[in-house]
Amino acid sequence: MFGLFNKQKNEENLPEWYAELQESQQRWFTFLEKLEAKMEEFAAAAIPELKEILQSDDDLYKRTFHRVYSGVNGQLSNIREKARDTYDEKILDVYQNYNSQISVLSRHHNLVSDFRTACSDRYYDFDNQYEYWRKQIEKTQERDLEIEYQKILDEFDAIKNKFSCTQCGGSIEIEKIFLIETYISCPYCKTQNTFAPSTQGRNLQNIARGLAEQRTAHLYEAFETEDKKERELYHQRHELSLSKIHESDKKVLNEIQAKMDDLEEQRQFVIKNAPKLYQVYLRAMYDEWNKITPDLKEHNEKMYQNQVHNK
Amino acid sequence: MEEKKVNSFLDRLKQKAQNQTNYGGEMEISDAKMNAKDCPNCGAGRAKQDGVTHCAYCGFEFITVKLTDGVYIKKEDNSI
Lengths: 311, 80
Fold this sequence. Notes:
Largest interface: A-B, 47 and 35 residues
Oligomer: heterodimer
Structural class of chain A: mainly alpha
Radius of gyration of chain B: 25 Å
CATH architecture of the largest domain in chain A: Up-down Bundle
Strand content of chain B: 5-15%
């Protein structure tokens, strides 16, 4: 009927253009392998260097480190760009070319789509690899802010009783860590003295958030783990639902269904719970931040309100 | 060979980063300081209750703008 089931002999054999597709695919795979090796070699050499530069950089803002850091990142994204351009040029173009020539009804059309799937899967793997190295490089900028905070506290302890009024000579106590120049009036003659905090002291406002985040990192991690659970539970449930397809035993089916319901319940719980954990983290982080720089509390709270409503 | 290329690239990058000057010039690291500004007109100091914008004795204007509430400076610091 309609010749649907008549095998046509000339379509039995693989068409000649298939060899070209295979060659393209092979080349693409080798190309990505080479890029991956290059990326790995580069990142592996750069990471220890970056760590060393961060240690030895005596600039307050670690600018030398950040220059090298962005250079390394730029090099890495160059590699990625190369892959993307080649993918567009050598894979997508070839695919589109054949896709327009070969009818979807042709028996061989799947060869064309398989070609694209295989190549894009490989590309996806490459991109994952890139992400992995980028994260490793990102980690090199982490430094222990507790040490820097302690230095600021020590400095404050050393200077807080050191000053005296320039007008009458009475001693002036610095009551807290000031972040910018401020007037301090002499308790004896009431003259307004201008106090200029040290460069190190001023830097407190720059490290405060980082330090607060560092101190509440465990809460953020708790949120992230909970957030990721949703997908895991979904996939577990999905696998169970697949196992039901060839099952006819009612008892087994019921058991599977019960398990699936249980997983779904857990999943729904996680969906509700993850944002709550995020709120817990956010509040704790801002509390910690306010503790470090109480003067900026009003400003920080505004930012907190924005973040709370946006999430 | 390949190893050398990577290292020379990194070395060059490092060298360049170290030699680059910062926008805005060298950074000054300063210690905490205390200072007081006397009126350049009559030599009087500024007392807390008189505010910081004008000299209480001769009326010399230290700050032309009207102060608003900030982190440390408050509205009350305006001279009347």
